[in-house]
Amino acid sequence: MSGPLLADRTAVIYGGGGAIGGAVARVFAREGARVFIAGRTQAKLDAVARDLAAAGGEVETAQVDVLDQQAVQEHADAVAATAGGIDVALNAVSVPHDQGTLLADLSLEEFMRPIDGFLRTLFITSKAVARHMGRERPGVILTLSEPGSKLAVGGILGHSVSAAGKEAFSRVLAAELAPGNIRVVCIRPHAVVDAPAAGSYTGDLFAPMAAAGGQSVQEFLEGGLAQGTLLKRLPALRDVAETAAFLASDRAGAVTGTVANLSAGALVD
């Protein structure tokens, strides 16, 4: 039987206290990685850390504002100094934003909020960790996107442009970092069905749309969005986390500069 996927790897997860970040941290730890989770809310980080420690995982937390470039750089430097380098990094930072408002009623500020927020954090975190990756040990940077990057529907202008930007950023960064033995892979899940129950802001995001149809958020996800996929279901947190662990491992060593489609068939690439 083969060993853990991420044995002897050091992984940093920004947004590690969130629903997706926490799920990935748990699987990374299970697969043998030494996990460093960073985010804005210490209580959420501590909750994830308790789960990892209870399962025998090795984890450290840090309260870091991912929009503060100097703070993120200093954190990455400290992780690398402690662990001897960084092997894997995931940006799972969430930026609350508007969905459902059409151009006529959409403010410039709301349009730009996800574009500036998501791409700014992605630039800051990628730059901070890349300096400590690669060369003799392969490095992996994982990013997260959404199906909005490919959908032509109204009311998601800022969301769609930010998602497309994250995917473009990942492709170009993969080309830049490949000579240094660093892979970059974007993961594109659909709305994650159990994320609202795990504390994700997506519950608030979909609440107005669910209410308009007289549904709960869970009913809207399972009976509405899910029916637009080939599999008639939405991805779960475990789907995203297990995929992230595989992509971060040597078993996906030839995968870079691409998007892993976890939309359950909502999008067919």
TrEMBL record:
UniProt keyword Cytoplasm, yes or no: no
Single Gene Ontology MF annotation: oxidoreductase activity
Lineage of source species: Bacteria, Bacillati, Actinomycetota, Actinomycetes, Kitasatosporales
Gene3D superfamilies xrefs: NAD(P)-binding Rossmann-like Domain
Matches recorded under Pfam families: adh_short_C2
Entry protein name: NADP-dependent 3-hydroxy acid dehydrogenase YdfG
UniProt KW keywords: Oxidoreductase
Family: Belongs to the short-chain dehydrogenases/reductases (SDR) family.
InterPro entries: NAD(P)-bd_dom_sf, SDR_fam
Organism: Actinacidiphila paucisporea
Superkingdom as given in the UniProt entry: Bacteria
